[in-house]
Amino acid sequence: MKKIIKMFFIGAIICEISAEGIHGMEEVALRFRGGQFDGFKDPQVLAGFDSLNTKFIGNWPFGSSYAVEYDPLRAFVFCGSGGGVYILNVSNPSNPVKIGEIRTRGLVRGLFYHQSTQRLYIAAYVGGIEIWDVSQATNPVRLGYYFTPGYTFSIYVFGSYAYVADYDAGLRIIDVSNPSNPNEVGF
After folding, report:
1. Strand-pair category, 141-146 with 129-133
2. How does residue 48 score in pLDDT terms, banded at 50, 70 and 90?
3. Taking 50 as the threshold, does the pLDDT of residue 24 lie above it?
């Protein structure tokens, strides 16, 4: 049985695809991390993907975008564009609406959204990492930041630790258990 699902690409381009064997938007969102959809490496997804039934249904056309995250419960997209993040309501994918904005200390290269805490972790290139409370999307609040020795490109958070790809400074491990005072614990 084919299911229609929606997938978000870099630049907040919104497409509709037809696929078998995918259990909804949450699974696609889990497979889409760090700006790359890695579901095509999974034979189950590849076998069910129908490229003939893909169509463009909307986008957010402002500025170059390097990172995107999705909140499936609220139908919000966090789109890293230049030195900030647009928060978009995509409950109507053909008409994304900007509901909030974050200005960062550097170019947004990577995002990680933690759904249970409603925190957005930002890899801000020369600006290190930033941690934001986006529970009130119309009024996001910066909780903390940490300057890394390199250029942050990507971030992934698990438990109390942020794993940061920091260009020539390598992998940095940041303790984010106290978001107002993150500190490096390994590299």
Report:
1. antiparallel
2. low
3. no
